[in-house]
Amino acid sequence: MKKIVIAGLGPGSPEDMTPAVIEAVKEADFVVGYKYYFQFIRPYLKPQCECVDTGMKQERERARQAFMLAEQGNTVVVISSGDAGIYGMAPLIFEMKKTRDADMQIEVLPGISAFQKAASLLGAPIGHDLCIISLSDLMTPWEVIERRIRAAAIGDFVTAVYNPKSHGRYWQLYRLREVFLQEGRSPQTPVGYVRQAGREGQEVRLTTLAALDPEDIDMFTVLIIGNSQSYIWADRFITPRGYYREAPDTDVKPGQQIMMESFRTIESELTNKDIPLGHKWALLHAIHTTADFEMEKILYTDPQAVERIYQMVTDGRLKTIVSDVTMVTSGIRKGALARLGIEAKCYLSDPRVAEMASQQGITRTQAGIRLAVEEHPDALFAFGNAPTALMELCDLIRKHKARPAGIIAAPVGFVHVRESKHMVKPFTDIPKIIVEGRKGGSNLAATLCNAILTFDDAAQLRPGRDL
After folding, report:
1. How do residues 25-80 score in pLDDT, each as one tens digit?
2. By C-alpha distance, which of 186, 229, 236, 194 is closest to 211?
3. Mean pLDDT across the stretch 402-431?
4. Residue whose C-alpha is closest to residue 298's, from 187, 426, 419, 438
């Protein structure tokens, strides 16, 4: 049967060409390809072998010539740089075989792709899931390319970029960088790029997504963008597979281990990781409880709020947490309260509350806060349900009847919720944690209390000690 061999030459250096490809080239009567690549195979050609060049951007003509020569009984090898199946001639040859209904055997010999060679020169950047995207829009509309870029960014893939730039395509790489940053990829994400990989004039460089300058890139360059786990160490770009992931501690219970892994996952997906430790610790708790990454935008903490309240705990100045509803106190970890000698209280079940609410025409939660302030004016107050209770506390502070150690403002709902949170902000001398807008809830208020009580675990990212 007549036959065409499609051979991937690798990046260009003889040591990166496979023995199978070299043997195929040695047996060829005709080698069909772009003339630039003939230099890499000339030492292996038999004297009578002829190289057929169809010029740049004439791939269809190149394939047609290969079929014509093979149909005449010649041994034909079609060459591509890198791997012939990756932006190479292999798909076109198979499509032409289908179109011509040709009685032709097709054999594909793989080669080392440019991104693989670049990766080996950079270190180990493709150790986990990856994708390859070409920025050339000659065959693919830019709208499709941009969708693929966005999907790669969202999916946290290591991404190899082919055809990043040419004389006519100067802006596409700028747009890729913009999309990656828009979709939450960290500005410090490692980026490696290699020019003329495996060839004379080879250049290898490391940078970050934020510092990447597309003006340093040309059409002979391959880029590799890391994922959220990638890092640079000793001038090498590494994307770990997970073999050295921290082993479970023998003294950590399964529930805590799961929580620790969850926190590591959340931290890796934060849009902005460069935030103060206290705010990050509260934020990780809030996202863990709600699975809502909008918390990055709506969780507000005063400067050093978590640290300041925790310091009052360790100094023995904070002995009581008061909540607006019992669900908040139920969610505060009993182990942490016992360990630190703190009492969590809610006054809703106090028999005095119903009587006061009825007599004074206020809500039961308002009455509960009035009683709480009489007995514990310097408590940490945590609100997860009732905006009227938070507004009551604000009024009592202004009347100098309450002097809270801190305030957690996370009431949820649609009536007076936003206003109650605005009302608490002017008390600049009181450390506050606020869930902005309508969102909140008892679970959030409780988890923010837990974040404060376990702040000494924040630096090691070891939540869940008291589970």
Report:
1. 999 999 999 988 999 999 999 999 999 987 767 899 999 999 999 999 999 999 99
2. 186
3. 97
4. 438
Vertex 406 angle, CA 340 and 462, to 5°: 45
| Intra-chain end-to-end CA distance of the chain, in Å | 71
**Nearest alpha carbon to residue 291 among 318, 275, 269:** 269
Cβ neighbour number for residue 99 with a 10 Å cutoff: 9
Average confidence score pLDDT of the chain: 94
Backbone angles phi, psi at 70, to 5 degrees: -70, -35
In this structure, which amino acid lies at residue 204?
V
* DSSP label at residue 398: H
Residues in CB range of 262: below 8 A, 6 or more apart: 288
**Span 226-282, pLDDT tens digits:** 998 899 999 999 999 877 655 555 577 788 889 998 998 999 899 888 899 999 999
Q: How many CB atoms lie within 10 A of CB 426?
A: 10
Residue 89 confidence (pLDDT) above 60:
yes
CB-neighbour burial class of residue 351 (10 A; exposed 0-12, middle 13-18, buried 19+): exposed
Give the span between the Cα atoms of 91 and 84, in whole angstroms.
8
Return the pLDDT at 249: 59
| CA pseudo-torsion sign 250, 252, 258, 262 | negative
Spatial distance between the Cα atoms of 34 and 84, rounded to a whole number of angstroms: 13
In terms of Cβ atoms closer than 10 Å to its own Cβ (0-12, 13-18, 19+), residue 367 is buried
pTM of the model: 0.62
Would you tell me how many other CB atoms lie within 10 Å of the CB of residue 286? Answer: 26
pLDDT at 13: 85
Q: Which 3 state secondary structure label does DSSP give 33? A: strand
Beta strands 432-435; 50-53: pairing state: unpaired
- Looking at residue 122, its amino acid is L
- The structure tokens listed for 343 are 């009492």
What are the beta bridge partners of residue 323?
346, 382
Q: Cα separations (Å) of 216 from 206, 219, 225, 345?
A: 12, 11, 15, 62
pLDDT of residue 14: 87
Query: For position 58, what pLDDT does the model report?
Result: 85
Catalytic amino acids? 288
Collect all residues with Cβ–Cβ distance below 8 Å to 44 and sequence separation of at least 6: 22, 25, 26
Please, is 73 exposed, middle or buried when counting C-beta atoms within 10 Å of its C-beta (0-12, 13-18, 19+)? exposed
Structure tokens at 6: 């499609």
Looking up tokens 């609100």, which residue turns up? 383
What whole-number distance in Å separates Cα of residue 174 and Cα of residue 182? 12
Mean pLDDT, residues 174-183 = 95
